[in-house]
Amino acid sequence: MKKIALVVIAFAAFSCTKDENNVLKPLSIAELARVTPEFSDFSRSLDSLGLTSTFESAGNFTVFVPDNDALGAAATALGFANLDSIFKNPAARLVLTNILRYHVVTTGVLSTDLANNQIVTSLYGQDFKVNIAPVLEEDATYPGEKNTITLTGNNLDIPSSAIVVARDVRCTNGIVHPIDAVIVPMLPASRRK
Fold this sequence. Notes:
Blueprint: H1 2-15, H2 29-35, H3 40-49, H4 52-56, E1 61-66, H5 68-77, H6 83-87, H7 90-102, E2 104-105, E3 118-121, E4 127-134, E5 147-152, E6 161-163, E7 169-171, E8 174-179
Parallel strand pairs: 1-8
Antiparallel strand pairs: 1-2, 3-4, 4-5, 5-6, 7-8
Helix pairs in contact: 2-3
């Protein structure tokens, strides 16, 4: 059900950005995050960390965007009360910046470009793993769903995985794949809390 909701949200975000001639205006990754309620914490994070301009500019990024629940759970897992606590802590801000960079690939990657057991190098410079598993017709959450895409982070101290809940949302500067959790890279121990 969450997959369908995020797809609807993504399409609604596009339909809300009509110009005066009632023509759909393409959105950047930052703009999509700003107008999609499920991505409001991601958008606030970009703003707080000074990353918004990167995702408003021209480029060809792929961003695995965690929803609000995922970012809240990640803040707790890292030992903070909430996302706002991270924004107020300089060391934690650096950790969050690195985590967000771990969700970005510097080329456009469609879901059909991903392969099972693929290792992907992130903008952070560390790898995460892609797992693709077939979905039985009776377990599909939308018509035609053939597989589940899961990302697994490389941090063994903080194991993490995320399911891609919507696919191939095209923006002016790349592709967005919404995910249901935050994947965590290896982080310097002295900067985690």
